[in-house]
Amino acid sequence: MQKWLQMRYAFIVLLAFSPFIFGRQSLTPCAGSFSSSHNKSAGFAAEHKKLSFAEPTLAERKLHALINAYRASHKLPAIPLSKSLSYVARTHVHDLNAHPPESPCNAHSWSEHGVWSSCCYTPDHKQAKCMWDKPAELTNYKDSGFEIGYWTSAEANAEEALEGWKTSAAHNAVIINQTIWKNEEWRSLGVGLAGQYAVVWFGKKKDPDGYWEEKAE
After folding, report:
1. d(CA 210, CA 212)
2. How many Å apart are CA 62 and CA 55, to the nearest integer?
3. Torsion angle of alpha carbons 61, 65, 71, 76, nearest 10°?
4. Residue 109 pLDDT more than 70?
């Protein structure tokens, strides 16, 4: 019975391509500390960053494997696990868990509690650039990122996150290159999964800092 009572939502950020589903989300905002400012990003694009990349967790590797298996079932190639985009994904997941956004800010927001440009992401998309630029701002991946996400009132896991995205037409289209995404080639994928959140970032360019090798189970 408890499982039926758990709340699960999927949210999506599609940056640059799709204004009619850009910022789509059904995540109920909750308490946290966010700002509408975009105040720390000056000059980030030209800076080469020396980052320390943490190994993906077993849960994150599992989500990556499930996504590629799902793509394979649609005769699509696997997307390698990007160190840079995974860094962005994990950073956002940890920020969301530590500082959940407060209405009117939604889960595409970033808090003031980090070395990034904070923003209160609202339905009018006025803070779109704050989201769009996160890979270039935080890493050496100098291109736009495309984020999908999942939240549950319990603890997020790989299987339920993917199933949630598969039941949402907008999320599913990103994962398996349908509708407006059918001509895109994803060359990099980042995964973050911890606490109540799972997020995945898609990118069209190769990661200059490389990829995590797959590990046999």
Report:
1. 7
2. 13
3. 90
4. yes
Query: Which residue in this structure is represented by tokens 């598969």?
Result: 166
User: Per the structure, how many domains does the chain have?
Assistant: 1
Q: What is the pLDDT of residues 146-202, one digit of tens each?
A: 888 899 888 999 999 999 999 999 899 999 999 999 999 999 999 999 999 999 999
Q: The tokens of 128 are what?
A: 């779109």
Residue 15 covered by a domain:
no
CA distance 106 to 89: 16
Domain containing 83 equals 58-203
CA distance 80 to 27: 28
Q: Domain of 160: which CATH number?
A: 3.40.33.10
Would you say residue 164 lies in a domain?
Answer: yes
Q: Rg of the chain over CA atoms, in angstroms?
A: 16
d(CA 171, CA 127): 21
Which token pair is 197? 């959140």
Residues 1-28: tens digit of each pLDDT: 444 345 566 665 543 333 222 233 323 2
Ranges assigned E (strand) in the chain = 8-13, 81-82, 146-152, 188-194, 197-203, 211-212
Residues 6+ apart with CB under 8 A from 59: 157, 158, 193, 194
Whole-structure pTM value: 0.81
